[in-house]
Design brief:
single chain, mainly alpha
Amino acid sequence: MTEETRAAAPLTERQEARRRAILRASAELAGRGGFDAVQMREVAEAADVALGTLYRYFPSKIHLLVAVMQDQLDRLHTTLRKRPPSGERASERVAETLMRAFRALQREPHLAEAMVRALTFADRGASAEVEAVSRRTTAIIVDATGLDRPTADQLCAVRVVEHTWYSVLIAWLCGRASLDQVRADIETASLLVDR
């Protein structure tokens, strides 16, 4: 079941519960062993669903792990709305928000690696899922700015910040960036939203 199918036909309560169980099982497997630990048959067993059912919801491991990332971002967004960032300037709030997101991923590096790897490997077949992740990330950053109706220029700055965040996350996961470098890059990119 692709993102477009879900948009056309809302899930029943039972289907949504099944989908949540699949996402939970996938996140747990990825959290223990990263991308390679997520095998569709093991996900189906852990979620207590038939393998065919799993494939109806998620046609591939890439689709599945990108959906896990969207789910993680949804949870983060809910948390951030309950406890919004406190900086005076928009750039400070954006940097604080993205560092909170980074620290959450840092606590589960195997899960972070699996999700980012799936996002990086995703082809056009998973474009709806990738776009959903991007929309959620954009919404998180826009909320942090405090802007009700961002202009085209402001949305461009948000996209650059979003790209920088993913880039430094990849660099950190690959061992090419320290926590100080991650923070410096996020803070520098976040200055764009103050323009």
